[in-house]
Each structure stands twice: as structure tokens, then as C-alpha cells.
């Protein structure tokens, strides 16, 4: 009996499934966790539950139709994804769009980023037990969704960009409603810090958790706020400006801690930068046409074309191989979510199961962006 009492307890590794239907995976994602007690030894993502062969479909669609498939991927960055395809097609056609289009696209892109970050903030608080953040985040996001609805007629999976410009000109209320939103959100954004950023429990659950070094971020191809929180300077808007980003002043938000709180703080700071970008442009939208003329059937010349943009989750790339037909011979999307997910196992090893929820929240996964 004495031997039994003094003998050290033995532990055994075991496996559990997290998902594919789990609230903290924010979509149809299955993670197989190898555990030793509460400690995570390995996280193995299993994807494919929502695969729709979008890239293969693109080989049979016109370039105008391909634009609309991309807002079914990262639906929270829909306008930015649409813009990437349009820019790639315009590059192939060597088509210069009007200055009015460049400025409007930039404003719409930053409103999209704000809307995505607001949803992320609300959901992240809820993931860690703070229900009120969800209500506050959606309260503020609703103002942007109303602007988008008035602009393009949709509140989700929105389309507004087309090759050559925009579907329609902006609504007469666009500038006023955008300025009203900026004035409103500048007062509300500090509340995000009061409610969550400075919360002791929240900080204890995010600081020092899920660390990713700069070298590992580069190695895994982690971009967006997740990469910049590790010190990886990767903002496409700064390094390869497109639309009107070369005409505005803004900071690339970088941190060095590489943990969950750094990734959280990067997105909060980026919201201030997005507000500043919109403020610089909203009263300076040039007059002129909202679309450059294009042929009804667009055929790109033979060749390869690549365009990348900065979505709310990182670098989104469109790679087109054209044989001169109305559909691409091959098309490949570089989605930020796929690369960011690849680092999850590295970040979660040695953490506890509850930490995995915080880690996943701070890499802000949208599963249809990964599983396309």
C-alpha cells in the first residue's frame, strides 16, 4: 500500500476532436488535439468540410464573374478581395482606372477593415467570456453595414468593384454617413480599451500566451496583424501601395511580443489608422467617371499576372495564367487564413486547452478563406 501511495502518478497522451462544429473555431474547422492532461502536445487541423473548388470554377468563368466568387471566401474582407481580382485584371489589360475610383476603393477597403475588426473584437471578448463586447462591436459595425447596403444593396457577401472601376457611383449620402460614423467611432473606440484591453482577466489570458517569433512568422508566411504582432513588417499597403494608399499618411503597426495580446493590440491600433486614412480622403474624392470603359467580354493577353492586397487578415494574392481566352487557364489565390492557420500548432504547443481559444481568436480565422 505504501508503494502505491509513493509511486508517481502516470499520465497518458490522448486525443480529442475540437470541431468541425465548435463555437470557438468560428466555422467548419476540425482540430485534432493531442493532450497530456490539460497540456496541448499537438494541434492537427483537418480542413475540407466547406471546400467548393472555387479556383477550378474560375477556369470556366469570365473575369467579371470571378470577382464575385472572392467575397464567398473571406466574407469579412469581401470588398478588398473583389478589389484584388479587379486590380489583377486591370494589370493584364494595362488599364488605368480614374482617380475617383482609386480613392473610393481605398475608403471602402478601410471601412471593410474596420467592420471586420469590430466583429473580431466583439467575438474575441465573447470567446473569453465577456458577452457585452459582442453587443458593442455589432452596435458600431451596424453603421458601416448600413453604408454598404446603401452603396451596393447588400449587407453580406457584398459586390461593388468591377474590372475598370465600380458598379455604380457612390450614394449621395455616402460622405455624410461615413463622416458621421468616424465621429461616432472615435468616441466609442476608447471604450474598447476600458471594457476589454485593460481587463485584468483578459490580460492574464492573453499576455505571454501563444507566442510566435518574427522568424517563425516569416517561416510560416503569417501576415496581417498576426505577423506584424511578431515584428514582421508585411503591410502590403506600405510595401506595394495600390489604389490611393500612396497618397495618405498612416503607420504600419508593429509589435515585438508575438503573443495573443500583441495580436489583439495590433488590430485595435490599426482601427485608429483606418479612421485616419478615411478622414484624409473622404472630403477629397476627385470628380470624374466611376468606371473606365471595358469590353463586354474581357480577354487578358497571354501571360502571368499577380496582384496582392492587404485584407483584414493579411496578404491576399491573385495569380492568373492567361492563354488569351475569356477565362483564365489557371488561377490561384494566396489567402492569408491558410498560412496563418499553419502556425497554429507551433503557437499552441505547451499551452492549455483554454489558451487555444484565445490563440485562435487572435489569428482571426475565417474558414471559407482557408477551405476554398
Structure description:
This protein is α+β, with helices and mostly antiparallel strands and 372 residues long. 49% of the residues lie in helices and 14% in strands. It contains 16 helices and ten strands. The protein has helices at residues 2-6, 54-58, 63-69, 78-93, 99-127, 131-152, 174-197, 200-206, 214-220, 224-228, 236-239, 260-282, 336-342, 344-348, 353-363, 367-370, and strands at residues 14-18, 21-22, 27-28, 30-36, 39-46, 161-162, 165-166, 303-311, 314-322, 330-334. Helix 4 runs antiparallel to helix 5, helix 6 packs antiparallel against helix 7 and helix 7 (174-197) packs antiparallel against helix 12. The N and C termini lie far apart (59 Å). The mean pLDDT is 91.
Structural class: alpha+beta
- Spatial strand arrangement across the major sheet: 1-4-5
- One letter per element, helices H and strands E, the order comes to HEEEEEHHHHHEEHHHHHHEEEHHHH
Sheet-strand content, in percent, reads 5-15%
Helix content: 40-55%
What is the distance, rounded to the nearest whole angstrom, between the alpha carbons of the first and last residues?
59 Å
User: How many distinct helices?
Assistant: 16
- Biggest sheet, open or closed, and with what strands and sense? 3 strands, antiparallel
Please supply descriptive tags for the structure shown above.
372 residues, alpha+beta, 3-stranded antiparallel sheet, 10 strands, 49% helix
